[in-house]
Design goal:
By secondary structure, this protein is an alpha/beta fold. It has helices spanning 15-21, 23-30, 47-56, 60-63, 79-85, 96-102, 111-114, 137-151, 162-170, 175-197, 221-224, 251-258; strands at residues 4-9, 35-40, 90-95, 116-117, 126-130, 155-158, 200-205, 225-231, 238-239, 246-247. It has twelve helices and ten strands. Strands 1, 2, 3, 4, 5, 6, 7, 8, 9 and 10 form a ten-stranded mixed sheet that branches. The mean pLDDT is 97.
């Protein structure tokens, strides 16, 4: 039975932009090979609080990462701590804030010391991290693929920042933002065959959207609505984005269910998160 998961968190991937420009993922849903949900992000619609919410299944008031400037380690159970405790292997290719949350380093992140976090002793076991928002997505996916091939993780997180970078620079209605959404989806399309052959399920979502001014943090639908794509034999295929939306509190219990792993003690039960399992 498949129980390995690749979790791709595309920073600032809004629902409308994904629907228009993520051709491969939309094709998989249309062809009956995957599922799509509309997901409403928790508030505030900014990155560091939503990383913790997505990976812990907890709202901001409960996990305490309330701002991008809340710089400390996570104090709650999360996907990295749960997989490590379960005797599984985890890995992460992503932005340095993830290592600050789930690694065992002296804060703040320092590029020349912390970029390669291999055989780490924190919640994250193996990682490669970057700290510039314009770090190329293609290079980031290559980092993730190195970790996958080197360590065969049961849980691999890949976190590209290019969409967020172009959104802040040009706004959500720009050609640049749209092109970057298509580019990052194309990286997934190139790699999916190898991932599937090696027994991985795939979950793709965003932490928040982006507005036409290149901003996010507030309560507009364009800032909060993101897609949730699931390619897994454990989930019924179909486009459910027109139905009642799920929330970012659903992602961590979904990941646990796909891995056959008990959720954290404060996560929602998998049968209450609005995902149609087989």
């Amino acid at each position: 039975m498949m129980n390995k998961v690749i979790f791709i968190l595309v920073d600032a991937l809004g629902l409308d932009a994904a629907t228009k420009h993520c051709g491969f993922l939309e094709h998989m849903v249309e062809a009956g090979q995957g599922a799509k949900y509309r997901m409403i992000g928790e508030l505030p619609s900014i990155s560091r609080p939503m990383y913790e919410t997505l990976l812990s299944g907890l709202p901001v008031w409960k996990h305490g990462i309330t701002s991008n400037d809340t710089r400390r380690r996570s104090r709650v159970e999360n996907m990295f701590s749960l997989t490590r405790r379960a005797g599984l292997v985890n890995a992460c290719a992503g932005y340095d804030w993830l290592l600050e949350l789930y690694g065992e380093i002296e804060l703040p992140f320092r590029l020349y010391r912390d970029r390669f976090y291999l055989d780490g002793c924190g919640d994250i076991m193996h990682g490669i991290f970057y700290c510039t928002d314009d770090y190329p997505d293609a290079h980031l996916y290559a980092d993730g693929e190195y970790l996958r091939r080197q360590y065969a993780p049961d849980f691999l997180m890949i976190h590209p920042m290019g969409v967020d970078d172009q959104g802040h620079k040009h706004g959500a209605l720009s050609k640049e933002y749209a092109a970057q959404v298509g580019h990052t989806c194309d990286q997934i399309a190139v790699l999916w065959e190898n991932w599937q052959e090696d027994g991985y399920q795939l979950v793709v979502t965003g932490d928040h959207g982006m507005d036409p001014l290149g901003l996010h943090e507030g309560n507009e639908p364009i800032q909060r609505e993101v897609p949730l794509y699931i390619l897994s034999p454990a989930v019924k295929p179909g486009d459910y984005s027109g139905d009642t939306p799920v929330t970012t509190l659903s992602v961590a219990p979904l990941l646990c269910a796909l891995m056959g792993m008990n959720p954290g003690p404060d996560m929602k039960p998998a049968d209450t998160i609005g995902i149609r399992f087989r």
